[in-house]
Please model this.
Amino acid sequence: MAAATGVAAAAVATGLVLGPGVLNDGPGSSVAGAPTAGEYTTKAGRFEKLLPAGTGKISEVSLMRLIKQVPKAPLPKPVGPYDGDYAVSRDGGVGYISVHVATREEVQAKTGGKGIEGPCKDAPKDGRVDCTSQKLPDGSLLGIWQTGEPEPGSFSYPTWGPEFAAALKLTDGRILQVRDIGGFQGKGQLGPLLKTPPLTRDQLNKLILNPELLP
Model:
């Protein structure tokens, strides 16, 4: 199989960052959970308070259910209090913010026991653009990057809008991941793409360092 490139490579390299439900169902799946087409739930209301004023209208969704067009597909049991996908509606478009806490066991299982190395180790050839990493005072490792454009002639479905992604590798082996996506085009889309991701890079940096995202 040919090596993945561009956005596809970034998806492979950051399989954990894609979060629960998009690539797999994960352990503890259940039919109950996030709505399909977007609802202003209590959880969405709490999450909105963690975001900067003016981010947009927040509703809870399931990207996996939207993209796969399976409204009652099982969803993995959340680890963190805000794990899940959130639609962000503003300026006539719809973007998404996805949050996922990966347990140490999940990380070990998905990496064959190797764990996750530095987030920028293989950038930019793995599709991560302007990747920066920072070791925090408590020993955690933070990485933030932008997902590159698909290479000419390549095919990916759905077509994703502009995106920032961040991963926080904690000292106990867990990883907190946040995707900041300008939307997607394809079956299940809730609206046109945003011109930019819902959060700026600096705003994403601040969000992923918020301890309220952790269990």
Observations:
- The first helix runs from residue 6 to 13.
- The longest strand covers residues 93-102.
- DSSP finds five helices and nine strands in the chain.
